[in-house]
Amino acid sequence: MSDKAFASQADLVEKTVSFDKLSDHAYAYTAEGDPNTGIIIGDDAAMVIDTQATPVMAQDVIRRVREVTDKPIRYVVLSHYHAVRVLGASAYQPEHVIASRDTYDLIVERGEHDMKSEIERFPRLFRAVESVPGLTWPTMVFEKRLTIWLGKLQVELLQLGRGHTKGDTVAWLPQEKIMFSGDLVEFGATPYTGDAYLGDWPATLDAIAALAPDKLVPGRGASLQDPAAVKAGLDGTRSFVTAMYEHVKRGAQAGKDLRTVYRETYEALKPRFGDWVIFDHCLPFDVTRAFDEATHYPHPRIWTAQRDREMWESLEG
Ligand SMILES: [Zn+2]
To answer: Residue 128 to residues 53, 68, 122: CA-CA distances in angstroms?
Structure first.
């Protein structure tokens, strides 16, 4: 038997939600390291970036949006394909669900497996899972860049490079220099890298920094409300991603097996990053992907509920 409960199965304490106003057009729904939702309010419509895990959980987002606007929520943007961010989409009854082509391709290829795997990893985050009608399918797919005008408000959906997944999309308000980054940036929360391109991720963070956001809503953790806080979020994410990958690469190149590399990487990273939420949940997945990328798998292998358990047993058992 494992010493540690699988993934986030022992994480049952509810978090406190914050609904932060970043500008007249931008709000952040955050919850102490649980997955965030971004809200953009234009002249004629509102847009939601990432939906929460279930329609029932999304109702709490809608309730708060309705306290600040009665404009229709016409657009849902998927920052990437992960179930915990996208399966609440139906609650908003959007006209359009927008994703990058790479995200669409991942939903086709592995959306079903990912849904089953994530529901087992995060029981607390899939409250009322029976309200999920199935996979969330984009109605509009773009490559690299899509500009949407919500009246006079310009919204840029940008694929700046691979990182957390191959489909990562950020939402950018150039007039206000506000960014919604999805899981490319985390703050006080451990980056999940089980589906990542670790070699590419730092350059994608460079591309985010080059836009010089004044404010940034990360995928998990508090909204970053000034340039110094944005820099702290970017720096923290970069140091975790690079330290973890360097450690694993060194171990793999020395011919060590995955379990040994995992134990050594865990001990090395725990003092620096162990207080970030979901550290113990993420690290086995993160090191497994890093070991794959450092050896034989340029592209992330599909996680199934069964592969999750076998990996956990072999590293934590
Ligand atoms: Zn994710």
So the answer is: 9, 26, 12
Find the 121 Cα to ligand 1 centroid distance in Å. Answer: 13
For ligand 1, the distance from its centroid to the CA atom of residue 164, given in whole angstroms, is 7
Q: Is 104 helix (H, G, I), strand (E, B) or coil?
A: helix
Element (H, E) at 300: none
Gap between the terminal Cα atoms of the chain: 6
Measure 51 CA to ligand 1 centroid, in angstroms: 12
| pLDDT tens digits for range 15-74 | 999 999 999 999 999 999 999 999 999 999 999 999 999 999 999 999 999 999 999 999
| pLDDT tens profile 100-145 | 999 999 999 999 999 999 999 998 999 999 999 999 999 999 999 9
Rounded Cα distance, 132 and 81, in Å? 15
Whether the pTM exceeds 0.90: the reply is yes
Q: Are the C-beta atoms of 220 and 11 separated by less than 8 Å?
A: no
Using the mean position of ligand 1's atoms as its centre, give its distance from the Cα of residue 168 in Å: 9
If you measure from the C-alpha of residue 197 to the centroid of ligand 1, how many angstroms do you get, rounded to a whole number? 13
The Å distance, Cα 183 to ligand 1 centre, comes to: 5
Considering only CA atoms, which of 151, 152, 170 is closest in space to residue 160?
Answer: 170
Main-chain phi, psi angles of 163, to 5 degrees: -165, -95
Which tokens in the block code for residue 291?
């070991």
CA distances from 260 to 1, 248, 267 (A): 18, 10, 11
Q: How far is Cα 136 from Cα 133, in angstroms, rounded to an integer?
A: 8
CA of 80 to the centre of ligand 1 (A): 7
Q: Phi/psi at 77 (nearest 5 deg)?
A: -110, 135
**Closest alpha carbon to 241 in 196, 207, 305, 298:** 196
